[in-house]
Amino acid sequence: MTILTNARIIDPEARTETLGAVHVKDGRIIQILTNEIKSFPAGKVIDCDGKYLAPGIIDIGVKIGEPGERHKESFRTAGLAAAAGGVTTMVTRPDTTPAIDTPEILDFFRRRAADATPVNVLPMAALTKGRNGTEMAEIGFLQDAGAVAFTDADRPVENAKILQRILTYASATDALVIAHVQEPALSKGATVTSGPFASKQGLPAVSPMAERIQLERDMALVEMTGARYHADQITSAIALPVLERAKAMGLKVTAGVSIHHLTLNEFDVEDYRTFFKVKPPLRSEDDRMAVVQAVADGLIDVISSMHTPQDEESKRLPYEEAASGAVGLQTMLPALMQLVHDGHMDLPMLFRAISLNPAKLLGLDAGRMAVGAPADLILFDADAPFVMDRFKLLSKSKNTPFDGRRMQGKVLKTFVAGKQVF
Amino acid sequence: MFTQRHLLGIESLSPQDITEILDLAERYAQHNLKQNKHLDVLAGLTQINMFFENSTRTQSSFEIAGKRLGADVMNMSMQASSIKKGETLIDTALTLNAMHPDLLVVRHPHSGAVKLLAEKVNCAVLNAGDGRHEHPTQALLDALTIRRSKGRLHRLTIAICGDIAHSRVARSNIFLLGKMENRLRLIGPKTLMPSGIDKLGVEVTDNMYEGLKDVDVVMMLRLQKERMDGGFIPSEREYYHRWGLEPAKLANAKPDAIVMHPGPMNRGVEIDGTLADDINRSVIQEQVEMGVAVRMAVMELLARNLRNSKAEGAT
User: Fold this and answer.
1) Of B115, B132, B135, B179, which is the active-site residue?
2) What is the pTM of this model?
3) A56-362+392-405 to CATH, choices 3.90.550.10, 1.10.10.10, 3.20.20.140, 3.40.50.300
């Protein structure tokens, strides 16, 4: 039995911040008290010193290097980074080597995860065999084996007929399909967003229109099939009306965005800095502001770190040859605190996007500050300033674009099912 | 004064830097007419030409420039060697570093690759073309050629025509001629025009007749063979009809307008063969001549900066 007292409690459901205490027993929240109550039930008392206590982050789209790329990230290192970053549930990507596309591989993955990570791991499975976009994976078996969603990660299913059948099949088992919404022919080989910056740097570029085209196509297929669909990253202003229309029509559609597209823009690439190479490429400042607003308005439902570990060798290359992606488990909270400090959204709204909404999307009872919810909690200082040093990150790979950046917001303690893991 | 350690692009140069380089190059242009062309400006220094992309013209120009200044010049054809064995660019750089070169001339098919290499070596690096990004010595030799013909390098109207999108020559020229306060017009099919380029202070048109109106200089660009077969333009003959430079289109330019081309030319595709050979209009041969002079000037200045930085390091 643990009591966290003197905490500034964030309730994303009620959209409130209140001073009080949270009472945890057997891994669950059993009581939430206001500070006026002077006598606490017996148990271990943790004084939160007026700092923020919130539901832990549920991060959809975490890449772990197992199986296949353990030199970039292992379950152990990802788990340490997650705990230190306040991520209590990692929803993992199937773009491993081999891809997680059979119940057997999924089973191996889950056992490794349980052995090596202190936080919850919920695996996603591949939508198509080998993520090659041609044959659907065993969606039913994989659901039974514990897959919480289906995605081919950064590969869109190119053939509309195939995706239509998959969505139809998935709708029957209420499986959640997560898609990368970048039209593949337009995006092929592109490393930055088209415009004056790309033209000046002479880099192959893609228009954000590629995002809208793919989203329009997918929305039409969702309308045909009635499937549950989540767009992994909406990053441009031009795609937002499509999302808005789909939601207004009552389609079962949600959307996410990465921390990088909310806090960085295309100019950050500067002179070919490969740590800023992500998929889709960083957008214009106008696009960034539009998606920040869309999160604040609730149009974009979920924020992910899109944690993608890459070793030094895959980044120390000419920009076009370098690998895409950035680590994010540990940088997520301080990066997002920038949006709160800049006044774009309040903390309860932020935690809707990083805890409550991902939980709802996956049908979890976590992500809430409520009696009966799992005691997956984080205690953090919203203001503590620091300079990001990438070599202090616990991930095996250190590829963060925030290296050297002045940031605010530090995770002080992380609890998973009431147990302190950081 | 030009104090940079490397020459990676035009974008970071000031108008004063450009003028300093061109003034020195002008002296070398005179010098190169002498029978005895040998100098000892770079005596004792080692110059390595590393071309990750095929080039005969640029590589020989750099080789002649280095040899005339007395450097020990070595050519490494990188296509044939280590990258085929899987060595990364950084490893190649470290290997080279151990050989203690003083000047490294690099061409690479990817934008930004020469800068990446420059960060890892101890010598001066000269960009001989990186991807679609920059080709600074080409822009400098073009500028010198224009200055010699027109007597100035400012307040001219200059058209750059053809495949702008894939051209590093175009980008370096846009930077250089813009810095020197000229009026620039980019002419070409929209499929070969980079997006948002109009925001870099240039005029953009796809009409060759309108675009060439009253210009002082016409710079043609090479159209790569692989872009001619329906991907970017319908055919070679339609391209020539609409954007190939021939007397009828050139008639719209000023009567004394000069015609330039960075080479190698596709006669009958982007330029009429007779026009290219017209000594009254074409300065294409002079461009090649100025190329050697400009490269000598840049190498002398980089060697000077290298000595200065070493002298500072010693004290």
Assistant:
1) B135
2) 0.93
3) 3.20.20.140
